[in-house]
Amino acid sequence: xxxxxxxxxxxxxxxxxxxxxxxxxxxxxxxxxxxxxxxxxxxxxxxxxxxxxxxxxxxxxxxxxxxxxxxxxxxxxxxxxxxxxxxxxxxxxxxxxxxxxxxxxxxxxxxxxxxxxxxxxxxxxx
Length: 126
What we know:
By secondary structure, the protein is mainly alpha-helical. About 55% of the residues lie in helices and about 5% in strands. It is built from six helices and two strands. A hairpin with a 2-residue loop joins β1 and β2. The longest helix is centred in the first third of the chain and has 14 residues, at about 35-50.
C-alpha cells in the first residue's frame, strides 16, 4: 500500500495555493504530485479544516469464504468446461451468493485453477 504524503508536503502545497500565484495544475507539477491530489487536498481542507492523511480502513474481506471455495472446486470438477459466467450462475444457485466474472476469475486463480482453451483445470505448478 502506498504511503500517504507527509503533512509537511501537504502544508507546503496549501501555503503555496493560499499565496494565490500558482494554479492547482502548476502546484501539482511544482511538487511532483497528481493534480487530483491537490484538488482532493484542498477540498478536504475546505470541508474538514485539516490536511492530515485520511485513516485507511482494513481491506474488504473476500466475498467467498473457504466453504464457498470448496463448493466452487466441486462445481469446477463436475463441470470443467464451464465458462466463468456459467460458474457464477452455478455458484449462486448453490450458495445464494452472486459474484461477478472478475471475482470468479481471481478466486479460481487463487485456488490454482487455470482457464485454458475454455477448460478449467488444476494448475500443475504447485
